């Protein structure tokens, strides 16, 4: 074999048969390998998406849907949950037009009647008494309307907008307004028993307790929450029994409506605020520590780690279960189930849309009413979706559960009935 010319490397020629060090070919090979890797990644992502879609489709078909058994178009704009008057088989619907519409859904054809008409919106649900139902409006007037006939029995002018639902305890009716006035009236004729000025507007949702003493609990909103978000007053004279928090300042601006329940033979109060705090208070003292137990826990927002979680809906209590628990939802639209005794989080469920209400059905399931045309029924023990409720093309506005029935009102005024016994 003849020797290689001077300056020419025979081994380099064999290693680089396509040019000087194979620059162009190596570049093409690198691009080809890069394209192959990209294609493999894209194919892998497509495969993952197809698998996820298959799982979602399987789960979707596996979850039964509740179809409406009846639907009626009503020319109303509902503003608050309706109330079912079982004695007269009537739905009472508050509206944006300042009306209380009475609906007889079991009559054929559907019968409706306006029982109250004012010039201001009604933002709270009526409260049923023995003879009358009571409702307040933005014009500051509390009305007592005779059940079954719609005749006005009496009215009381509070002096400011009433955006909190009145509350009954025996023969006393409690009414709060946006100027912070809380009044106790006689339910039969509206005569004033006492009236007390609180330091800020009264939030939605008064509560009453009967043990260890009879008290009305008023939630406050605004700056007064710093020095006492809940005020407990004696039902007989309006004297302040306690306020929470008693001494320390809080960072909250709003407290949810308190909910009272009998737990282990003691009356407890459950409420939450816009700092993500959920409280279990002793009704006697308004505290969550000491020999009487109780607790206070905080939940972080699921959407943003450092975001402030607003627990806006009143807690839903299930005290009849073998393990008492409560359900709460915040502005991250996560439904949480908490053990009442230990405050331990049992499960949580992320709603696909804004949660407007938390309801409990007759068969023990939890119903988060979601904004949109689909809501869900959850297993109270596990939080798993057991069924879907499909509405119209209009978004759900509010719902009411009664026995095995679910009454749903949409933003366009459509009223629908769903039966839990016919999935």
Strand order of the biggest β-sheet: 2-33-32-31
Q: Which structural category do the helix and sheet elements fall into?
A: mainly beta
Strand content: 35-45%
Q: Which stretches of 5+ consecutive residues score pLDDT under 50?
A: none
Q: Compute the number of helices.
A: 2
Count the E strands: 33
Average of the residue pLDDT scores? 86
How far apart the termini lie comes to 91 Å
Helix percentage = 10-25%
Q: Roughly how many Å is the radius of gyration?
A: 31 Å
Largest sheet: 4 strands, antiparallel
Indicate the overall shape. globular
What does this structure look like?
The chain is mostly beta strands. It has a domain at 13-60. 11% of the residues lie in helices and 39% in strands. It is built from 2 helices and 33 strands. The chain has helices at 10-15, 23-62; strands at residues 65-66, 70-73, 83-85, 90-94, 99-104, 111-117, 127-128, 132-136, 141-146, 152-157, 167-169, 172-176, 181-186, 192-197, 207-209, 215-219, 230-234, 240-244, 259-263, 266-272, 277-282, 295-298, 316-318, 325-329, 334-339, 345-350, 355-360, 366-370, 374-378, 385-390, 396-402, 405-410, 414-419.
Summarize, please.
The protein is built from two helices and 33 strands. It is mainly beta. It has a four-stranded antiparallel sheet, with no helix packed on it.
């Amino acid at each position: 074999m003849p020797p290689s010319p001077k300056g020419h490397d025979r081994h380099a020629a064999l290693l680089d048969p396509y040019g000087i060090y194979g620059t162009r070919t190596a570049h093409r090979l690198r691009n080809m390998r890069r394209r192959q890797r990209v294609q493999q990644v894209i194919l892998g992502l497509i495969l993952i998406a197809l698998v996820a879609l298959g799982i979602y489709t399987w789960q979707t078909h596996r979850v039964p849907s509740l179809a409406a058994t009846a639907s009626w178009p009503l020319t109303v704009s509902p503003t608050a949950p309706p109330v079912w008057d079982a004695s007269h088989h009537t739905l009472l619907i508050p509206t944006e037009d300042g009306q209380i519409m009475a609906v007889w859904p079991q009559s054929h054809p559907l019968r409706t009647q306006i029982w109250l008409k004012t010039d201001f919106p009604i933002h709270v649900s009526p409260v049923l008494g023995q003879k009358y139902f009571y409702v307040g409006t933005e014009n500051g007037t509390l009305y007592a309307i005779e059940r079954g006939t719609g005749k006005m029995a009496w009215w009381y002018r509070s002096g400011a907008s009433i955006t909190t639902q009145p509350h009954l305890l025996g023969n006393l009716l409690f009414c709060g307004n946006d100027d912070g006035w809380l009044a106790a009236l006689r339910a039969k004729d509206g005569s004033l028993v006492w009236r007390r000025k609180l330091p800020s507007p009264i939030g939605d949702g008064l509560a009453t307790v009967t043990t260890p003493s009879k008290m009305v609990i008023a939630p406050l909103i605004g700056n007064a929450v710093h020095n006492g978000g809940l005020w407990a007053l004696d039902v007989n004279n309006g004297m302040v029994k306690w306020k929470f928090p008693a001494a320390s300042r809080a960072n909250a601006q709003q407290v949810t409506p308190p909910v009272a329940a009998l737990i282990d033979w003691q009356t407890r109060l459950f409420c939450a605020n816009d700092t993500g705090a959920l409280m279990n208070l002793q009704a006697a003292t308004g505290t969550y520590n000491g020999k009487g137990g109780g607790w206070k826990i905080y939940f972080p927002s699921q959407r943003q780690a450092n975001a402030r979680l607003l627990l806006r809906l009143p807690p839903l209590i299930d005290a009849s279960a073998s393990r008492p628990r409560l359900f709460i939802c915040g502005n991250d639209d996560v439904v949480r189930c908490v053990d009442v005794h230990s405050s331990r989080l049992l499960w949580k469920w992320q709603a696909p849309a804004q949660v407007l209400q938390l309801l409990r059905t007759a068969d023990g399931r939890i119903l988060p009413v979601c904004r949109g045309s689909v809501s869900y029924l959850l297993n109270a023990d596990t939080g798993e979706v057991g069924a879907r409720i499909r509405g119209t093309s209009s978004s759900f506005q509010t719902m009411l559960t009664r026995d095995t029935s679910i009454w749903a009102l949409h933003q366009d005024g459509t009223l629908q009935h769903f039966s839990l016994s016919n999935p």
